[in-house]
Amino acid sequence: MSAVSTEPASGTVRPRDVLLGGNVLWLAIVSLLTDTASEMIYPLLPLFLVGTLGAGPAFLGLVEGVAESASSLLKLASGWASDRLRRRRPLVIAGYGIAAVVRPFIAFAAAPWHVLVIRFTDRVGKGVRTAPRDALLADSVPPAMRGRVFGFHRAADHAGAVIGPLLASALLLLLGGRLRPVFLIAAVPGLLAVLVLTLRVRETRAPPAAPAPAREPAAAEAASGGASGLGAPFVRYLCVLGLFTLGNATDAFLLLYANGLGVPATAVPLLWGVHHVSKMLWNVPGGALADRFGPRPAIVAGWAVYAATYAGFAFATEAWHAWALFVGYGLFYGLTEAPEKVLVAAFAPAHRRGAAFGAFHGTIGLTTLPASVLFGVLWSAFGPAAAFLTGAAIALAASLLLALVVPAPAELRS
């Protein structure tokens, strides 16, 4: 029978016990296996679409944008559903299962639109699982440890993203550079992830909503405003996040550009793996910084790093520039991935946390389509430098706005 408990109190357990036990550990293993499967395919996908199937940069942007944006509505719905049902685990299992089954069918794609359909279905699975999974993690740990927990989870995810490209590179060498068998073999770690999830992850429920106390009219209006009652500050956070994401196109463009700078196709998975090593090393320190100083300063710094990295790509001319920039790009993820989720959990009451994470991921997903299409169109019309510089400018603007218009949640001020 699945264990059920209310949200733990802060300071009752040691950090090591939280990170290496229970749902935190098993969900980390699930993410490691899932990303191993996904990243055996993802860094090769731009080369497969453009080189094998004859698609162009604009279609690559369309594939990634549609895939991510299509999942955004499901993230909203699944987060809301997990709050209503007060059960997150079934949705998490369903989401990982859909992706694990459909992803390897890329091996049989004969036209670019086949890849679009498969990526769409894969992202449907991600849309179903992501908000309930993040809410389950937040429900399972003390509030004071959320930064480290989300950082640990993302570090495991990136460890899988290191293993996946290494496996892909080894298989490419063994298989004479053939991409399709690599895509097919990626089914194995994906299915293992679903097995671990089904057998080991347990339900942990947040407490039900308490009856709302009487409020003055102004306070009541503020508390019920925006994002289904999650509050106006949270809505401002989502708006600024949406602006940043508008300049954050799919990383597939970075891989395609690196190949154009002289990184050979056989080394692209290794480049992607090095990038994920950087992300993995920075995620836990980034989460710890959010626990110590609050998430907003870390996010502001991370978005500034993103702007500097994109500006660097705009002026890169050699293959080694791509390697250096991909390593530095990992710092952006380390400073933002866990802190962004800590900020969501702090804004949301426990009984609305699924909906809050759904709104967070949904905002990113809905903005990904115009971001990727915009980047692809700018690349095609004016060249890659214009696309990268536009993304850098948008990131800088979002970084300033986050510091100026989004207040720290009450939980983080106490």
Describe the overall structure.
The structure is a single chain. The protein has 414 residues and is mainly alpha-helical. The chain has one domain (15-206, 229-408): Growth Hormone, Chain: A. It has 18 helices and no strands. The protein is globular. Helix 5 runs antiparallel to helix 9.
Strand and helix layout:
Elements: H1 15-19, H2 22-39, H3 45-52, H4 57-85, H5 89-102, H6 112-139, H7 146-174, H8 180-185, H9 187-200, H10 217-224, H11 232-246, H12 252-260, H13 268-293, H14 295-315, H15 319-347, H16 353-382, H17 384-405, H18 410-413
Quick structural overview:
The chain is mostly helical and 414 residues long. Helices cover 76% and strands 0% of the residues.
Total domain modules: 1
Structural class: mainly alpha
Give me the CATH fold name.
Growth Hormone, Chain: A
Specify the biggest β-sheet: none
Q: Which shape, going by the Cα principal axes?
A: globular
CATH architecture: Up-down Bundle
Report the uncertain regions.
Answer: 1-11, 207-226
Q: What is the CATH class?
A: Mainly Alpha
Helical element count? 18
- What is the mean predicted local confidence, pLDDT? 84
Radius of gyration: 21 Å
- Reading the helices and strands in chain order gives HHHHHHHHHHHHHHHHHH
- What amount of the residues lies in strands? under 5%
**Name of the CATH homologous superfamily:** MFS general substrate transporter like domains
**What is the terminal separation in angstroms?**
37 Å
